[in-house]
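Working notes for the structural subgroup meeting. M.R. asked for a predicted model of this chain before we commit to crystallization trials. I am recording the input and output together here so anyone reviewing the notebook later can reproduce the run.

Input as submitted:
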Amino acid sequence: TVSNDTNININMLNGQFVVRSLLFWNLHRVVTVTYCCPNTQTGSFLSADIWRDVHRLVTPPLNIYVESYHTMSDAKWRSIDSNVDVVITFHATAINKSIEKVLGRPYKFIHFVRDPLKQVVSAYIYELQRMGTAVHDNFFSVVKRHLGNETAGVLAMAEYMQDELEAMATQFELTTTDSNSINIKLEDFSTNFDAATRRMFTFLGVPVKLLDNFISVASKSDLHRKPPGWVTDSNHVTSGKFDPKLYENIILKYSRFANRIIAMRHLLGYTDSW
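Returned structure, recorded in token form:
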């Protein structure tokens, strides 16, 4: 998470990641929205981690606002302080059409997407891992109702997340038709972190002579460059305690949403076959 000891101006509420910046060098005020696909805490934490270090490359440092779990209403957009540069969020709805009108400023929008099949499985495993803790939410309740029956549990999670996945697909399509917006796969930061951040910073207008420095500073957030034994929030998937492929196959074989999930994967650019 992002903490106040980083000299970033943080407001913790419930759901989104937006950046309003001076385009880093006072060209003109721009809102850069980095929206992490529904219920993708991994993406939100990664985004916040990147900006935690990168914000210091700007003078004055960028100010960051974090909104978690709930869709940003127009009223909340309007309530954002004028000195805020970055808003981090898990949710957004038709944001391309509304942000410039609501804030009255130009914007840049970066939409992080994730493989919908893996997103469901990740959420299911994450909640399995939390059993016995004091943390409770709707996702936790879905899994708890089906403890001892993995097939029923992961299918219930797939059904519960359909609205969120549809929102991600809708936002993806809106973003592809908006010249001020781009979609970036969360997985790109795993396969080639530097290429993903280069694409992001280039889109935001970071001058070529500064690009390598921005990428170098951001690379501290690359999980592949972390020291041995580094534990991350995604450890629930990578720990080896669970079999993600097993759950993926259950969804594809038994879920009434299987065909729709496959169609979403292709829409988002995940072209491997099942």
